[in-house]
Amino acid sequence: MLLGIDVGGTHTDAVLIGRQGIVAMAKIKTDHDNLLVSIRDALESIVSVAGPEGVSRLNLSTTLSTNAIVEGDTEPVGMFVSGGPGIDPVLYRVGDHYFTAAGCIDHRGEETGALDESAVVQGMAACREAGVSVFAAVSKFSTRNPDHENRIKELVHPLADYVAMGHDFSGRLGFGRRINTAYFNSAVWRLYNRFVDAVQQSVLSMGLRPRINVLKADGGAMPLSMSRHLPIQSILSGPAASVMGIIAICDIREDAVILDIGGTTTDMAVFAGSAPLVEREGIAISGRPTLVRALRVKSIGVGGDSAIQITPQGVTVGPKRLGPPMAFGGAHPTLVDALNVQNVIAYGNVAASFAGMAALAEGSGLDPETLADYAIAAAVNKIREEVAGFVREINDRPVYTIYEMLEGRKVAPAKVYVMGGPALALSALLQDAFSQEVVVPENFAVANAVGAALARPTFSVELFADTARGRMVVPSLGLSREVGRDYDLAAAEADALALLREHVRYLGAEDDEAPVETVERSSFNMVDDSTFLGRNIRVVCQVRPGVLPQYREAVTCPC
Amino acid sequence: MSVLKAARELGIVFFPAFDWAISPTHPERQERLLYTLDQLKEEGVFDIPGIREYKPEVAGEGDVDRVHFCFPETSGVVSPSHLVSAGGAIRAGRLVMEKKAAKAFALVRPPGHHAMKCVHGARGFCNINIEAVMIERLREEYGPLRVAIVDTDCHHGDGTQDIYWNDPDTLFISLHQDGRTLYPGTGFAHELGGPGALGATVNVPLPPGTSDEGFLYVAEHLIRPLLDDFKPDLVVNSAGQDNHFSDPITDMAFSAQGYAKLTEILDADLAVLEGGYSIQGALPYVNLGIVLSMAGLDYSHVREPGFEPSRVRQGSAVTDYIRRQCVDIRKLVKNPPPRQRSGEMVGEWFVRRKTLYYDTDHITEYQTESVLVCPDCPGVLKIESESSRTPLCLGVQIPIRACPRCRSEGERVFTEGAKSGRYAVSRLIDRAGKRYERVGGVAVG
Q: Is-contact B60 B80, C-beta < 8 A?
């Protein structure tokens, strides 16, 4: 059986899934200052119902790294950056121990300037002084040639408990993202590993012997052992878990929009071409973009707790939140209060909602019911507009070939799935607003934990080969090897797929659980003065986020 | 939180056409913008707050027919790739006109500045003039605009010059390697525009070996004042990058730093990529420099590998020559000689005869261009054109602010021409009435 635990900001949800369906569920308040307690409580609650046997896999989605980064509760990192010409690397400064060294690798992976090792040595002295013991090394175009990052690691190693290298995280380009990713990874490395030690101990002490995976922001899973080196990959996994849950529960197969209406925001994701859409480059955290793959999720400033206001432009809902709904003791009427007034729901103290709405309506010429009506309509319209804008934005993403320009597939959602507190209450109104069918699944309360439990491993490999230089690299696997002049796109694609399959097996998945696919393949003839020099080959293969097929039926219910 | 933030909003329409080439080893091939994309991605340009990447539109044949006389038909000379690159320029123009961005850069291929008013095929790697298609679309949508085009490609922008030769509302300035030493062999200082638009065409031929010093001198001392005098609503930079010292098909000595500074001086609203074929050693760095400069960001660290200013610095003879050129050209533009060498008056019409060679498609075109010299408007344009592939055709254009007489004269010339049976194809571009017609060889009505 598969156990999924999602440690969220407010609640920790757990669900145990067998081949026949959901065996046990638990919902506990999250102890923000001690996530381990929340996890232990969730485990105990499940074990008390189902016993420790039979749990073959535990998939854990946790906010530990996210919280640490967002709250700045991280360890100082010695950051060594070699930039080469371009944007001044000083402008990417992050943290208090940021050192730049001259040195340059160009776009083909050619060293065009030697690494200034003396600058690294100087920075090390400063780090020793400051007691810094985790490091990160990033150079420009290290995904084409990691020599400078490797060299920096060698140099700082004697001082280090841990050194992250930029090319470990992704083969994608993005110097600034690489710096942020490596930096944050080192900044939470120790904290995360201690936490994971404690989680493992708790699991064992309860008599459980599962394989443990950790959820990622792309809705996929990675083995706990791997997450120890790449804790940054565990950030912002919560929203992805919910999306994966709904996909499993509703067995979504055609293009669709998924809305999660929460307290302060409504999060939307898009399912297209048989998988949820992934961010093109990576997700941002604390205002800094990273190379961490994530589902493309956009937040709208409308939720159950969004404040209602009367403005010269009309009645608005959100994006401001002025405290909880009046039905729950707040001081300002919110969307939940409007729904109470309109009798759509009866949450908390309905009389308080009425009183609040009446007070707000006073002097506006509106009666409380009409004001509530307007507010609900404003919220629904805002959601509809934002969804349309989101789909438009997705279809307007840049493409680089004439073929894609003219023949590219357009995303055309056929259904809108809605979950979250006010989902059912708003469903009829949303149905009026959307031309697509609006669906509110029954089981969405633990969708996040279901998503966590059923997530399959995801991974992507980016292969880059330059036959003129005679080299092929796969940065995220730390692979670099010589290739002959006859190495071509077919050979490169075969290599990339084989390497990915092998890695996915190492991640603990069977081939049929985690199908691999090629998402980008290109080979450019390099020509100089009308002479063919070689091929510049790029291949990207991946396992897309998806739900483990064997358990899909167990959780699917009519939606 | 990030220190990097664009001082002004920049929209980049990036379209490298990774599946299009003139031929596998042609300079205009799939690989051309590959390393530029790598560099821009690696630098994180699209992550900088204030810089955004946009997808091109696809221009329609109607956009082409508003500008060009394509013979024998538009679909025969225009491919989807050209419609996408022109559409990229249009999207960039729209971003600025709709104030979604302060500036925009269409980093697109294939290029367009050698495409002339009449199009029988490809010249100098160009089929349709993507800047002109964009500008005329903007004029159609947003009303008459005074537009200045500064063509900084190493090759003379002869196509753009031809299209705007008789348009006093479009200032066309081209600086390029001297036509005596490089394709297309035109763009001399005395080429100043048609009789109704004298001084609205400005050519600055530069000697081979001109480096940063020379380019920036011309930009500051000649182009900047001309732009200030003209008071354009929109400045478009045809941003060719083949003046770079490493370009394989030219002989200049310009650098990435120089391009970034030039961009700053021109302060164009829109840049549209033209040529530039040093795809590894120059384009990634030149494009990065232009992007940073347009966004008002620090570009001082942009430096191409192997750049030593002393090695490419221009000689003092070049410096002196360029300074004298600037003085002479300024005089010429201010006081153009009244007698035009380019053609002759026939009645009220000023007539030029041209023979044009389409080097990419190996076509020769014979053309008679007549413009009605009108005191009240830019005047009706009439072109008779035949080529080694297509028999005699007629093109008639009524300008946007045509006077009533020119409107009816244009109508008459087109209708009579179409009826006469003399022309395989007759085309009308009526900008005043927004009518765009094409008639086959058979008589109408």
A: no
